[in-house]
């Protein structure tokens, strides 16, 4: 006896509901969705700033450094016409970077930043040295280093990083948007830059079929059409003058050349110190005896004539008296 199976009939309206549920996909965040207090860059357009507490018709205000809504009126204002498609115009915001406030609430809405972008080429195996503008052997593996403030885009929900593209042009005029490394792996030159500096890792092995010569390279970011709206060298696009030259086929030795010793002056041999000669005593000639010079006895001066006459007279008188 066969078992009877029962089937439940599905109505047409019920089937339509199931199909609608299958077709509906959850909304995903985009690089144009700005979180509350997030950073936006000059030149970006089509930004959704509703999560920043901004609605159509709101007035945003900017205050000069050192000022805020608590200190007085704003130094610049912007009326938001469409909060789901906001344009960070270079004409309005280029001189007014920093926090913009929603004046209806007094709360910060978002931060406006002036982008910058730089790129250099480094080797991988020999000390990660900057090779920009220099020659490198064909058997060097190379990588790029990107320095930027666009890595702040990684703070947006669902965004891995700022989309930075690199382009390389060889002497034959061929532009490369993909490179091959030593392992033979090809890498598209589009990177999600989520930090600064950002190293791509080894992505270019010149000896894997690339010609010798000079290769020019540059980088740019066109997230939300920012490059088209703000194409300034060093901001949304780097200079096209950066280059690297692929020349020799052998790797220069990494052995440090011997350093020619600088002749060292041998230390002076300390000779025994000769004690200072004792100076010979200076013989002092004997002092001759002091000869006393006799003082001559003064010769009595002869008596004056008058005295003699008087003496003679006295003598005569004396004799006469004796005779008597």
Please state the CA-atom Rg, rounded to the nearest Å: 56 Å
Percent range for β-strand residues: 15-25%
The end-to-end span amounts to 235 Å
**Main sheet characteristics:** 6 strands, mixed
The parts where pLDDT drops under 50 for at least 5 residues are: 1-27, 252-303
Structural class: alpha+beta
Shape: flat
Q: Give the % helix.
A: 10-25%
What would you say this structure looks like, in words?
- The protein has 324 residues and is of the alpha+beta class.
- Among the domains are: 39-113, no CATH class; 117-246.
- It has helices at 12-23, 90-93, 226-229, 305-323, and strands spanning 39-41, 59-62, 76-79, 98-102, 107-113, 117-123, 135-136, 142-148, 162-169, 175-176, 178-180, 186-188, 190-193, 198-199, 213-221, 243-246.
- A hairpin with a 4-residue loop joins strand 4 and strand 5.
- The chain is flat and about 185 Å long.
- The protein starts with 11 loop residues before the first helix and ends with a helix.
- 21% of the residues are buried.
Features:
5-stranded mixed beta sheet; alpha+beta; 4 helices; 6-stranded mixed beta sheet; flat; disordered N terminus; 324 residues
């Amino acid at each position: 006896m066969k078992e009877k199976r029962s089937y439940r009939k599905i109505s047409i309206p019920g089937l339509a509901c199931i199909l609608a549920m299958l077709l509906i996909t959850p909304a995903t965040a985009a690089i144009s969705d700005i979180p509350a207090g997030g950073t936006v860059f000059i030149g970006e357009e089509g930004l959704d700033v509703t999560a920043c507490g901004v609605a159509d018709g709101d007035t945003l205000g900017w205050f000069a450094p050192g000022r805020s809504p608590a200190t007085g009126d704003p130094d610049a204002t912007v009326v938001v016409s469409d909060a789901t498609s906001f344009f960070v115009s270079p004409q309005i915001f280029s001189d007014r970077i920093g926090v913009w406030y929603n004046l209806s609430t007094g709360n910060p809405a978002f931060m406006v930043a002036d982008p910058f972008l730089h790129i250099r080429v480094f080797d991988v195996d020999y000390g990660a040295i900057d090779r920009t503008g220099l020659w490198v052997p064909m058997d060097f593996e190379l990588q790029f280093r990107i320095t930027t403030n666009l890595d702040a885009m990684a703070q947006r929900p669902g965004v891995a990083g700022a989309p930075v593209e690199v382009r390389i042009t060889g002497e034959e005029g061929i532009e490369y948007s993909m490179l091959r490394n030593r392992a033979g792996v090809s890498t598209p030159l589009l990177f999600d830059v989520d930090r600064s500096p950002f190293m791509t890792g080894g992505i270019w092995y010149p000896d894997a079929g690339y010609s010798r010569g000079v290769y020019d390279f540059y980088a740019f970011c066109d997230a939300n059409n920012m490059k088209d709206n703000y194409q300034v060298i060093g901001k949304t696009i780097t200079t096209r003058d950066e280059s690297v030259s692929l020349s020799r086929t052998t790797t220069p030795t990494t052995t440090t050349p011997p350093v020619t010793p600088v002749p060292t002056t041998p230390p002076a041999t300390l000779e025994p110190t000769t004690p200072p000669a004792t100076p010979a005593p200076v013989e002092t000639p004997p002092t001759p005896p002091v000869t006393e010079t006799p003082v001559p006895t003064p010769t009595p001066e002869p008596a004056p004539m008058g005295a003699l006459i008087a003496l003679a007279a006295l003598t005569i008188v004396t004799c006469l008296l004796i005779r008597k």
